[in-house]
Specification:
The protein has one domain: DsrEFH-like (Hypothetical Protein Ychn, Chain: A). It has three helices and seven strands, in the order βαββαβββαβ. The protein has a five-stranded parallel β-sheet with strand order 6-3-2-1-7, with helices on both faces. A two-stranded antiparallel ribbon has the order 4-5. The protein is globular. The relative contact order is 0.23.
Length: 135
């Protein structure tokens, strides 16, 4: 049996216009399926990936944002949003999708997956990770 690694997926790009956000989401789900310790960070324009009410009609491409709601089902419940990136884009936690997971250790209570952290806290999370994947 392989050793569990702490994997951090770092999302820096807006959700549409490049393949980075979609590719990141796919590999996050793959890592979780192999029972790795998965965390996901959203910094810079990556914070737009979790904005609610995304509409891609004018772009003529599929909106994949609803897929983020499945992360909790894969035990991906550590989603870190950099506070400074949110603020620089005029966003708050209220602008983001409500992403939750069911905590089996707390009688299956629904808990928030998103945690807003400072850039210093984000740097510490990166340092604690065994592997960083940048998108």
């Amino acid at each position: 049996m392989s050793e569990t690694k702490k994997l951090m997926y770092v999302n820096r790009k807006a959700p549409y216009g490049t393949i980075y956000a979609w590719e990141s989401l796919e590999v996050v789900l793959i890592g979780a399926a192999f029972e790795q310790d998965v965390s996901v960070a959203f910094v810079d324009d990556g914070v737009y990936q979790l904005c609610k009410d995304q509409d891609t009609t004018g772009l003529g491409i599929k909106n994949f944002s609803a897929t983020y709601k499945a992360l909790g089902d894969y035990d991906v419940n550590k989603l870190y949003i950099e506070k400074e990136s949110l603020e620089a884009r005029g966003l708050t936690l209220d602008d983001l999708m409500p992403l939750v997971y069911e905590d089996e250790d707390d009688d299956w209570a629904e808990k928030d997956s998103i945690k807003v952290v400072s850039s210093q806290e984000m740097a510490e999370l990166f340092e604690q990770s065994d592997v960083l994947f940048n998108f």
